Amino acid sequence: MQDVAVELAARRDEAFDRVYAAQYSTLVRLAYLTTGNAATAEDVAQDAFADWLRRFSEVRDPAAYLRRAVVSRCTSWVRRRVLERRHGSVPPIGASDRAATAPDADTAAVRAALGRLNPRQRAAVFLRFYLDLPEAEIAAALGCRPGTVKSLLHRSFGVLREHLDEH
Fold first, then answer.
1. Domains of the chain as residue ranges with CATH
2. CB atoms < 10 A from the CB of 135, how many?
3. Pick from 8, 146, 152, 167: most CB atoms within 10 A?
């Protein structure tokens, strides 16, 4: 009986390591784009993996579960941050990370344009154009319908186009 438990744990660890290696950097990028903060992005991704490990036997599609978990945590983080800014003196989202690097003018313009999107819109844009996910998978990650994804992307393009045309 104990041999079976050891074998199952070894398989779980191997599967976890494989998914972690394949997904971690992408999930950190998703979280960074949504939160604008590198340290928070890493924490969010690590927390999502920790939750997946606790629910390992229940999760059929780890990549989809992890994307959804990251988007959900990022949305919560941004909401808390907005409330903190409203009631105190907290720097704007991503201000410390952007100050650490000196991007070229085009990169700065794109970052500023993405900063005008709400977290859900940024996540939709990232999932569509960075991960090249179909609308159904984006909808699953965002917890909405595919038609909502189309609307989010359409509105996002309008905001991005408007901002980039100004620059």
1. 1-101 (no CATH), 102-167 (1.10.10.10)
2. 18
3. 152
